[in-house]
Amino acid sequence: MGGMRLLFVCNQGRHRSRTAAELLSNEHETRYRGIYDNPLMIEDLAWADVVVVMEDHQREEIAGWFPLEYLRTRIVTRGIPDAYSYGDPELTMILRQHINDILPGIRPDS
User: Fold this and answer.
1) 92: which DSSP letter?
2) Which terminus of the chain faces fewer neighbouring Cβ atoms within 10 Å, N or C?
3) 74 in a domain, yes or no?
């Protein structure tokens, strides 16, 4: 599969990150993980070209758990609150807007 390897992270790894990963799965290699459930592993960070976290505290958790990998990994924070269920139409709309904002900035040739 072409494209980038994008890892999406939210609190549980069930709703926001899963929805985001599935939105881009036809164009990119995607994974989704959580901070508290479906936990993020060091192998996920090594795999990803870019990690997209939904909130700042997830970025902080990654920095605390994996400090060396954190410094080596491109992490983008989107500021999407934990207020949505998997596949929620409003969440999907918000994610599409955010994805359009970040994709030009995360392409390897930019």
Assistant:
1) H
2) C
3) yes
Residue 54 lies inside a defined structural domain of this protein: yes
Residue 16 burial (10 A CB sphere; 0-12, 13-18, 19+): buried
Residue pair 18/86 in contact (Cβ under 8 Å)? The answer is: yes
How big is the CA angle at 23 (ends 56 and 66), to the nearest 5 degrees?
Answer: 35
Q: Which domain holds residue 93?
A: 5-102
Q: Note the pTM of the prediction, 2 decimals.
A: 0.88
For residue range 21-44, list pLDDT tens digits in order: 999 998 899 999 999 998 999 999
Instruction: Please count the structural domains in the chain.
Output: 1
CATH number of the domain encompassing residue 28: 3.40.50.2300
Please check whether residue 109 lies inside any domain of the structure.
no
